[in-house]
Amino acid sequence: MTNKEDAIAKMMKLGISEGEAKVFTAILEYGQLSAMEIHERTKVPRSKVYEITQKMVLRGMCIEKSIGSKKKYQAVEPARAFQNIINEYENEFDERKQLAAQLVKAAVPVYQESIKNTAGTEYVEIIRDLQSIHECYVGLVKITKREIISFVKPPYSTQRRRDKLNEQESAEFEVLKKGVIVRTLYEIPDPNEFEINYTHIHKCVMAGERARVIEKLPIKMYVFDNHYVLMALANIHTTTSPLTMLVVEHPALALASQILFNHLWEHAYDYQILRSLNKKPKKK
């Protein structure tokens, strides 16, 4: 290998210890080496060389040869050595999957019983991490069967990242294809964001969304099937995350939110006004 340090660093990222990586590069370069020779070339303490080489033999990275009264170590062909490591990790992963399945089987009944005991008392989940907010929103969209109503205003969990926005759009477009009604009220954005907002809204409308815009929205909120409410509150006292999202499972709150939505919907404008901002908008 032309760059030992780089090779050692990459092996460590693969999960191989630094000592194993140093020993492997040495025996790969010099062929058969004794423990003393490995120590001299790698500076790994001699007492550690025996421990490391035995572990490497078990992992399929090297073989031990007895030459007279001496033991020497030789690297296993690299493709086979690293495949042995991958196989080891895959076996460990399979074992963990089986353990996880066993834990799920044991934990689900306990969880379901605890839900019964707390039914009617736990309605609210609080989420502050932007990635978790994004995943929660996409998950709720995907399980919607009838209708989604949305009050859309900054700040955005996507932070204008195209990949996140694409994922949210894809989830919406899939449920639209299944006949879900999607109605969205957008707060008219700052002038420098008119174009990006119009592009997104127009794309959603072409997929089947019903959209209108309004000067000011009192809250950022989403209601799914008149059952789940995703309510965003701006964090004015922290810079770690611009949002705190409340997930509320409460049909009465969902109904109240829909009444507010319908009232604002009647006073909103066609989204096309974003293309003619120099004209006074006409109510739809």
UniProtKB/TrEMBL annotation:
InterPro entries linked: TrmB-like, Tscrpt_reg_TrmB_N, WH-like_DNA-bd_sf, WH_DNA-bd_sf
Coiled-coil intervals, chain numbering: none
Superkingdom as given in the UniProt entry: Bacteria
Transcription regulator TrmB N-terminal domain span: 12-78
Pfam families cross-referenced by the UniProt entry: TrmB
Listed PANTHER family: HTH-TYPE TRANSCRIPTIONAL REGULATOR TRMBL2
Name the record gives this protein: Transcription regulator TrmB N-terminal domain-containing protein
Lineage: Bacteria, Bacteria division WOR-3
